[in-house]
Write a structure and sequence with these properties.
Layout: E1 3-7, H1 12-24, E2 28-33, E3 52-56, H2 62-70, E4 74-77, H3 84-89, H4 92-111, E5 115-121, H5 147-166, E6 170-175, E7 178-179, H6 188-197, E8 203-205, E9 211-213, E10 215-216, H7 217-230, E11 236-239, E12 244-246, H8 247-257, E13 266-268, H9 283-289, H10 298-311, H11 313-329
Parallel strand pairs: 1-2, 1-4, 2-3, 4-5, 5-6, 6-11, 7-10, 8-13
Antiparallel strand pairs: 9-12
Helix pairs in contact: 1-7, 2-4, 4-5, 6-8, 6-10
The chain binds nicotinamide-adenine-dinucleotide and 2'deoxy-thymidine-5'-diphospho-alpha-D-glucose (DAU).
2'deoxy-thymidine-5'-diphospho-alpha-D-glucose binds next to helix 6 and strand 8.
Organism: Arthrobacter jinronghuae
Catalytic activity: dTDP-alpha-D-glucose = dTDP-4-dehydro-6-deoxy-alpha-D-glucose + H2O
GO molecular function: dTDP-glucose 4,6-dehydratase activity
């Protein structure tokens, strides 16, 4: 694939993918991004101008999406409203971007017969009980809990329908919780790292017993590239790195690695409808396409991430105060 259109490439995972794909392939990448509060052009600074172009735009803008899709060989669709807490307070942008935006893109990919890869989340499957040994597979029934995850589930179903009804050349991946550089400070791990840098105690929703299955953003990128190049059209692949941890374990680890007492955190108001546990079985991706994660140790990946936030305060500082005042209003 010579020309890849990446939607949401100024966000956390999209920008990591752009850096990764420019290093690992000789493709030209065009990013379309609306630069919402979650987009940051600094995440794409210094990329080679002969292989990278940035277009400021909205994925619901049909003429723009058609123009950019026609000029590309493949579309990798990351753009979304991505934060569960925001979706509980103002769901509308989630419907506009996650549903109508995806619809606009798959219509264009269909019109110009382009390869399409849809990025999605394990949250479409709902949650598992803490003590249930089961993990999500590609056959787990959809059962989303929040406005965010229900709009992602809706977008997945649109892509599946366009494959079956219109022959769209699409694949879908559903990944677990990502961590790494360029993640907005509203999200769990960067919020706590930057709190510790500021001398503020990390905040755990409820008892902190909820489990998330962590994967480094670079490993998500390598999986997406593998699926884009070798995945079977119409298939869904689950992406995960066997990284299950309770939120309390993650906070304790952050405190320990940053030289503070492991119990120097506080409990705050829980998230309404808070999913208990996510866990991914990525056997299909590993056996069928031969993918495996590079970051086998969460501790190593976390150390790199802590160092990145310590070294790149100018990247996150402008967003910290506003994010914390939003959380304060919600008692979180
Ligand atoms: P993010 O919020 O960091 O970035 C989203 C990007 O999309 C931002 O740059 C934003 O400006 C852009 N955007 C939003 N609305 C747009 C619109 N209408 N038009 C164009 N651009 C728009 O999100 P993220 O955490 O990087 O997530 C990226 C994708 O990966 C999402 O589809 C999300 O559902 C999925 N995902 C995320 C995780 C995770 O742990 N963060 C895990 C699995 C899947
Ligand atoms: O599973 C994939 C999903 O992971 C993605 O689809 C979403 O886009 C992404 O935001 C993430 O969703 P979560 O809701 O799991 O991530 P978040 O970082 O918001 O929270 C992770 C866990 O930490 C969750 O159980 C809530 C908890 N939490 C979060 C914050 C911000 C806290 O305990 N304290 C906090 O301050």
């Amino acid at each position: 694939m010579k020309r890849i259109l990446v939607t949401g490439g100024a966000g956390f995972i999209g920008s990591n993918f752009v850096h990764y794909a420019l290093a690992e392939t000789d493709a030209h990448i065009t990013v379309i991004d609306k630069l919402t509060y979650a987009g940051n052009l600094d995440s794409l600074a210094g990329l080679p101008s002969d292989r990278f172009e940035f277009v400021h735009g909205d994925i619901t803008d049909e003429p723009l999406v058609e123009k950019l899709t026609e000029a590309s060989d493949a579309v990798v669709h990351y753009a979304a409203e991505s934060h569960n807490d925001n979706s509980l307070h103002d769901p509308r942008p989630f419907l506009d971007t996650n549903i109508i935006g995806t619809y606009t893109l798959i219509q264009a990919a269909r019109k110009f017969n382009k390869r399409f890869h849809h990025i999605s989340t394990d949250e479409v499957y709902g949650d598992l009980a803490i003590d249930d040994p089961a993990r999500f597979t590609e056959n787990t029934p959809y059962n989303p809990s929040s406005p965010y995850s229900s709009t992602k589930a809706g977008s997945d179903l649109l892509v599946r329908a366009w494959v079956r009804s219109f022959g769209l050349q699409a694949t879908i991946s559903n990944c677990s919780n990502n961590y790494g550089p360029y993640q907005h400070v509203e999200k769990f791990i960067p919020r706590q790292i930057t709190n510790v840098i500021d001398g503020v105690r990390p905040k755990l929703y409820g008892a902190g017993e909820n489990v998330r299955d962590w994967i480094h953003a670079d490993d998500h990128s390598s999986a997406v590239l593998t699926i884009l190049e070798h995945g079977r059209i119409g298939e869904t692949y689950l992406i995960g790195a066997d990284g299950e941890k309770t939120n309390k374990e993650v906070v304790e680890l952050i405190l320990e690695r940053m030289g503070r007492d492991r119990d120097d955190f506080e409990h705050v108001t829980d998230r309404p409808g808070h999913d208990l546990r996510y866990a991914i079985d990525s056997t299909k991706l590993r056996t069928e396409l031969g993918w495996k994660p590079r970051f086998s140790s969460f501790e190593t990946g976390l150390d790199n991430t802590i160092k990145w936030y310590m070294d790149n305060e100018s990247w996150w500082r402008p967003r910290k105060a506003e994010t914390e005042s939003r959380y304060l209003e919600q008692g979180q």
